[in-house]
């Protein structure tokens, strides 16, 4: 069974092996990969900094082989106002190791991240991807992503989406919370 495991619970050797699986490939946007060539203490320090900034890092694993990291998901600073035009990247990001791509794992990781976001009290989350990334667009839209706008990042056209973490029928039952820097009234 696939599940997300908090980064602090993953052995550092598994993190290094995961990072090395990307080789010289640079088509990912996962912060943890920046720490591939540093010490375990520096990596743990980076995780502490992420937690201090209200961010969360998870690895996707299969219960049958928990030391093998399939992918990772990041929930960035949940207190930021992602409705502001200065935030295009969104609060969710993730990646699947190159040798495990095209096996459906990316379709599995997003709903798991949305469940984590819901447990953090978020009613909706922002996510973005490049316009030419058809697989990501399909996954986002299959998870009820609503396109907010197009924008340019690194000279390429990208898309900014919002995804609700709760179902329409559950909205009536939920209290409205202050989240992502916005105040909502009941």
Features:
single chain, alpha+beta, Aminopeptidase, four-stranded antiparallel sheet, three-stranded antiparallel sheet, globular, disordered C terminus
Provide structural commentary.
- This protein is α+β, with helices and mostly antiparallel strands and 186 residues long.
- The protein has one domain: Gcn5-related N-acetyltransferase (GNAT) (Aminopeptidase, 3-Layer(aba) Sandwich).
- The protein is 27% helix and 25% strand.
- The protein has five helices and seven strands.
- The strands form two sheets. Strands 1-2-3-4 form a four-stranded antiparallel sheet, with helices on both faces. A three-stranded antiparallel sheet has the order 5-7-6.
- Strand 2 (56-62) and strand 3 form a beta hairpin.
- The termini are far apart.
Separation of termini? 38 Å
Number of helices: 5
- Total domain count: 1
Number of distinct beta strands: 7
Strand content: 15-25%
Second CATH tier, the architecture: 3-Layer(aba) Sandwich
Low-confidence stretches: 169-186
CATH superfamily: Gcn5-related N-acetyltransferase (GNAT)
Class per helix and strand makeup: alpha+beta
For the biggest sheet, the summary is: 4 strands, antiparallel
Radius of gyration: 16 Å
Summed up:
With 186 residues, the protein is of the alpha+beta class. It has helices spanning 12-20, 40-52, 105-119, 134-142, 168-171, and strands at residues 2-6, 56-62, 71-75, 92-96, 124-130, 146-153, 156-164. It has a single domain (2-171), classed as Aminopeptidase, CATH 3.40.630.
């Amino acid at each position: 069974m696939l599940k997300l495991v908090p980064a602090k619970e993953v052995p550092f050797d598994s993190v290094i092996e995961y990072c090395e699986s990307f080789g010289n490939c640079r088509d990912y946007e996962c912060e943890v990969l920046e720490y591939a060539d540093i010490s375990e203490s520096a990596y743990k320090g980076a995780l502490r900094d992420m937690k201090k900034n209200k961010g969360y890092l998870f690895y996707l694993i299969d219960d049958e082989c928990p030391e093998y990291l399939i992918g990772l998901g990041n929930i960035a600073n949940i207190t930021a106002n992602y409705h502001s035009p200065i935030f295009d990247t969104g609060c969710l990001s993730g990646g699947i190791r190159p040798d495990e791509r095209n096996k459906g794992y990316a379709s599995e990781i997003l709903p798991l991240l949305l469940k984590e976001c819901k447990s953090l009290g978020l009613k909706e989350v922002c996510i973005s991807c490049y316009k030419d990334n058809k697989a990501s667009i399909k996954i986002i839209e299959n998870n009820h992503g609503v396109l907010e706008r197009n924008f340019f990042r690194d000279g390429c056209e990208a898309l900014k989406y919002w995804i609700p973490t709760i179902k329409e029928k559950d909205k009536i039952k939920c209290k409205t919370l202050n989240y992502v820097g916005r105040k909502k009234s009941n």
